[in-house]
Design brief:
mainly beta; single chain; about 30% strand; globular; 13 strands; five-stranded antiparallel sheet
């Protein structure tokens, strides 16, 4: 389950990318102050391009995580996409990277995923109003592709730029859009090694490991809605 992603995207890059793809977006009258963020956590706010009920798209910042389904439950930060239809409330969540973790003890081994050949990408997501006011988003998940499978048994839906419009405008086949990308679409590097038995964490200023092939490391398991 993804509970950590980052966003280093300059505001001007959003305008340029959506203009290039000819996707109309209602932008804020004044440019927002978007600071680079290496880690965005559940309940944090993050940039989102949301599809509104009137058929327009709007750039905004929303809280990550729907309200829990039960009292004292955790926020719904990931939502299983298989076998479901999403006729409303679609959105794109821009990101520079996301993290997954393996191991059983903290600090766990930390793996960083980036989009090959691109500085940033968009997750497929959903947004909805919250009962207490405001709006929130969640990330859609699917079965892992070959780049993520060695690390985790689920993954977030990363869309190709050519599919941004189809997802927002409901013009594409959902089953085809909400699938994992092909092998080599994501770059992977190990940015933190798990704690040693003596409690000392091995640190290095360089990536510790990059997955190319071979047996998968021990997976971390999570439940998805």
């Amino acid at each position: 389950m993804c509970n950590d992603f980052g966003n280093h995207v300059p505001y001007s890059d959003y305008i340029a990318a959506f203009s290039q793809k000819r996707i109309p977006v209602r932008w804020p009258k004044a440019a927002p102050n978007l600071e680079p963020r290496e880690d965005i956590w559940p309940t944090d706010k993050a940039p989102v391009i949301q599809r509104l009920g009137d058929g327009t798209n709007e750039f905004t910042e929303l809280r990550w995580g729907f309200p829990p389904a039960r009292p004292k439950g955790a926020p719904v930060i990931n939502f299983r996409s298989e076998g479901r239809r999403f006729p409303a409330g679609r959105c794109l969540i821009p990101a520079s990277h996301f993290f997954e973790f393996t191991g059983t003890k903290s600090p766990k081994t930390k793996w960083k995923f980036t989009k090959a050949g691109e500085d940033w990408f968009c997750f497929a997501g959903l947004w909805r109003p919250m009962p207490q006011g405001g709006e929130a988003f969640t990330l859609l998940t699917t079965a892992p592709g070959p780049d993520v499978a060695p690390i985790h048994d689920r993954q977030m839906v990363v869309l190709e730029r050519s599919d941004w419009s189809a997802w927002l405008e409901l013009t594409g086949n959902e089953a085809e859009l909400l699938r994992a990308l092909s092998a080599g679409s994501l770059n992977i590097e190990q940015v933190r090694q798990a704690s040693r038995a003596d409690g000392q964490q091995k640190a290095s200023p360089q990536p510790l490991f990059a997955i190319v092939s071979g047996d998968p490391p021990s997976r971390c398991h999570a439940m998805f809605i």
